[in-house]
Task: inverse folding
């Protein structure tokens, strides 16, 4: 299976739209350069494209992954139960700090989505950037531990 970075999205303002990017800069201890939400333990959010596809089938919707409002979409890798693990994206490293809980915006996007995302880490994960650098769609994604 092809394990790669499938999408990059930067939020201009809190609650604002998610802008797709072909490449971006991860900053250690901060998150994505230009993203509205930075710092803390939730510097970047990640979503599995396969888990998103399962959710879309479950609720009978056809939304693109950016509707989840995650910064990074990865394919070919399971994010469920990965708290504490380190993920390498290209030359960068992020530590998974926990599960991202779905908010009411998900219910507005598709009926039943918020509840469905509450199972099996369907909302994805949040992470802190350990080693920053440039990332690009298509970069390899691997677990370090």
Result:
């Amino acid at each position: 299976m092809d394990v790669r970075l499938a999408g990059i999205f930067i939020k201009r303002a809190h609650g604002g739209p998610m802008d797709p990017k072909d490449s971006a800069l991860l900053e250690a201890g901060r998150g994505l350069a230009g993203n509205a939400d930075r710092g803390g333990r939730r510097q970047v959010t990640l979503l599995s494209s396969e888990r998103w596809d399962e959710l879309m089938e479950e609720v009978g919707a056809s939304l693109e992954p950016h509707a989840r409002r995650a910064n990074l979409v990865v394919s070919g890798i399971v994010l469920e139960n990965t708290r504490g693990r380190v993920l390498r994206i290209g030359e960068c490293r992020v530590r998974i700090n926990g599960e991202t809980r779905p908010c009411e915006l998900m219910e507005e996007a598709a009926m039943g989505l918020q509840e469905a995302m509450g199972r099996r880490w369907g909302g994805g994960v949040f992470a802190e950037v350990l080693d920053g650098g440039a990332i690009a769609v298509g970069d390899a994604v691997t677990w370090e531990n």
About this structure: The chain has three helices and eleven strands. The mean pLDDT is 94. The first helix runs from residue 49 to 59. The two ends are 19 Å apart (CA to CA).
